[in-house]
Design brief:
- Helix 5 runs parallel beside helix 6 and helix 6 runs antiparallel to helix 8.
- The chain is α/β, with parallel strands linked by helices.
- Helix 2 links the parallel strand 1 and strand 2.
- It is built from eight helices and six strands; from the N terminus they run αβαββαααβααββα.
- The longest helix has 18 residues.
- Helices cover 47% and strands 21% of the residues.
- The protein is globular and about 45 Å long.
Length: 194
């Protein structure tokens, strides 16, 4: 569950993203919410509901949104769906996923990915390909992903994703531009050491 302070920080971060020059200029807002299924579905459902509720109260623009829900289940299983914002608020967006821990073949695979971590590379590749029009992209994750190709992730973050992405990870908010700068600095360290 997100605290009041975290929600206020999120509100400010989303406002900042919308004010990036050339980002949102009016009309129907398109945004994306990525739910990392390494998190328990109950947590995803609750936090998405809190976020949607806060956004709708924050600004009129969030009352008429083209919302893309992306379920990041595994590298080969990234499900995309356009839903009404109210589905996040009420939890209906996750009504079918009553228990990700259920013992069936699909969730057995999910348990393996939880241990090994999904590739952020693949998620960002798909975000860049399919969500270039989204003005705000929120990623709810526990941070158990891995990065195999830092240069590719940096490439996917440019030119738009870094400015529009906000990662919500274990109570911390990480702007896409911060992730880009960290990856660039690590790449510089690697280059300098050779």
């Amino acid at each position: 569950m997100l605290t009041d302070i975290q929600l206020l920080q999120l509100k400010n971060a989303v406002s900042h993203i919308l004010r990036v020059p050339g980002n949102y200029t009016g009309g129907v807002l398109e945004m994306a919410v990525v739910a990392d299924y390494s998190l328990p579905v109950a947590v995803v459902r609750e936090e998405c509901g809190q976020i949607a509720d806060m956004l709708k109260k924050q600004n009129e623009v969030f009352r008429n949104v083209r919302l893309n829900l992306i379920r990041w289940i595994a590298d080969e299983q990234i499900q995309k769906e356009v839903i009404p914002m109210s589905f996040l608020t009420t939890g209906r967006a996750f009504a079918k996923e009553t228990d990700v821990e259920a013992a069936d073949e699909e969730t057995a695979g999910i348990a393996l990915f939880r241990q090994e971590g999904k590739r952020l590379d693949e998620l960002f590749r798909q975000l860049k390909l399919f969500y270039a029009r989204a003005k705000v992209i929120l990623l709810l994750t526990d941070g158990s992903y891995r990065i195999e190709d830092r240069a590719a992730v940096r490439e996917y973050l440019q030119p738009f994703l870094a400015r529009k992405l906000l990662i919500l990870q274990n109570g911390e908010q990480i702007a896409g531009i911060r992730l880009f700068m960290e990856l660039t600095a690590k790449e510089g360290e690697t280059d300098g050491g050779e």
